[in-house]
Every structure is written in structure tokens, then in C-alpha cells.
Design a protein that fits this description.
The chain is mainly beta. The chain is built from one helix and five strands, in the order ββββαβ. The strands form two sheets. It has a three-stranded antiparallel β-sheet. Strands 4-5 form a two-stranded antiparallel sheet. Bound molecules: zinc ion.
């Protein structure tokens, strides 16, 4: 995880430093020669560690940060913001 500086605070709890998360999913495929090949898929999202709100997953670091930055300054209900969700 990478701490993000110079981005907007969490719109729900006001916490100042969200984190960028990079995740990988390995898809093991078996080729004709039965050699296993690992294909990595990588995605990114921004998360507030205090209230656990996250952005949608994006294909790049820049897109995940842009997603975090594009919402209104203050939100009361996470369900009002399509780009954000909580587990
Ligand atoms: Zn928060």
C-alpha cells in the first residue's frame, strides 16, 4: 500500500491520507506443452483505512486516484456515491 499525499481527504470521515492499493490476480493457464503460464492481472483502488470506504477498481494508479478525486467534498451516505463502496 502506498500513502497518498496531496489528494482530497475522505469524503465520509475526513481522514486526510487515503492509501493506494495494488492487487494482483494470478490466472494459471495450461498450454499445449503443459507448461504452466502465469498471467498477471493488476488493478488499483484507493481506500480510507479509517472508515474503510473504497473507490471502484481501476486498471491504473492514475485512474484510481482520479476516481478518488472526482467526487464532491462532503458525503453523508456512501450509497449516494456510485464510485465508492464499503465491504
Ligand atoms: Zn474515511
Amino acid at each position: 500500500m502506498e500513502k497518498l499525499l496531496n489528494v482530497k481527504p475522505c469524503p465520509f470521515c475526513g481522514y486526510a491520507n487515503p492509501f493506494l492499493v495494488k492487487e494482483k490476480d494470478y490466472d494459471a493457464n495450461i498450454h499445449d506443452n503443459e507448461e504452466k503460464v502465469r498471467k498477471a492481472e493488476v488493478w488499483f483502488y484507493v481506500v480510507c483505512l479509517k472508515c474503510k470506504v473504497k473507490t471502484q477498481e481501476e486498471s491504473s494508479r492514475e485512474r484510481a486516484i482520479a476516481r478518488w478525486e472526482q467526487r464532491k467534498e462532503k458525503q453523508n451516505d456512501v450509497h449516494d456515491v456510485a464510485e465508492f463502496y464499503k465491504d
